[in-house]
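Data card: per-record layout.
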Amino acid sequence: MPVRSSRDDEADLPTGPPLHFPERKGSPIRAIGLRIAVAVGALLATTILVYAERGCYQDRGETGLLSIIDAFYYSTVTLSTTGYGDITPVCESSRLVNALIITPLRFLFLIVLVGTTIEVLTRRTREELRTYRWRKRVKDHTVIVGYGVKGRAAARSLVDAGTAPSQIVVVARDHLAVDEANRDGFVGIVGDARREEVLRDASVSGAARVVVATDEDDTTILVTLTVRRLSPRAVIVAAVRESQNVDVLRQSGANNVIPTAEAAGHLMGLSLVSSAAGELMEDLLDSGRGLEVAERAITREELGMQPADLDAHGQIVLAVIRGGVAHRFDTDSISRLENGDRLVVIRHNVDER
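The structure for this 353-residue chain is written out next.
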């Protein structure tokens, strides 16, 4: 089997749409103002040095007649490397100042002036290399398709649950949505997730979880089909408007389907019938408030305990997951907790403890 060299890897640099990474915050006006200030400072410093040694400069064969305007003119043409040669240093001290001080100032002046151009020319290369390195490292990440209300809420819940923002990739057709995802600290890709190449840019084949939160059910079904074909092992959670499409989405490969419109309607109806029950459900749905629903592994101290015994520890067990099967609290199939069990519990929000 041939061994790939580093040059072969460099040849595989991505050619598709670049990833959009979170940028460091900073004012562009401030950056431009700083560059102008540095350039003007270098120009003024050179003018002062030349004028202070005006007796050591020759202008058209005459020495010692430089005015402040002449010093400014010499500084300008020298720092810009134009150098007409009409004004020249004649003393050893002035030549030494030109060599040791004015020449470094010239380099600084030029770097400041051409810095923006260099930055523009190298931006694409930097982004391609950053994308290449990201794709080499990323694994078991989460892809969120759509960054509207549902997508943002899903991302926020994942971060609240401990997922690092760098492990979340947002795919959206809207540049503004991707920009917002970048501001929230997530990697973003602009494109239509129904296309395989866009999902490949998001490395969906190596993703552990995929959230499909588009606004149209037909789009959600097509995206789910494509994701499942590219990533057979990923856990796919999809949101759907019409409950009649739930079965279609499950057949398309979604592990969990959330009928958002009906869920919101049930919550509103529950709030009308019982405001306390509605408030409790709202609390559970908001990961930033007092209670949260969480899945966790059992601790060593909990081995052999009954699920109901955990009530005394301030946690209500909703289900015990054993062998990949969830056993709800209203069944008697789990009498004692065993090694490898996982629990779905209602508990106080970790951040509020």
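Known properties of this structure: Confidence is low (pLDDT under 50) at residues 1-15. The chain has eleven helices and 13 strands.

See the next section for split statistics.
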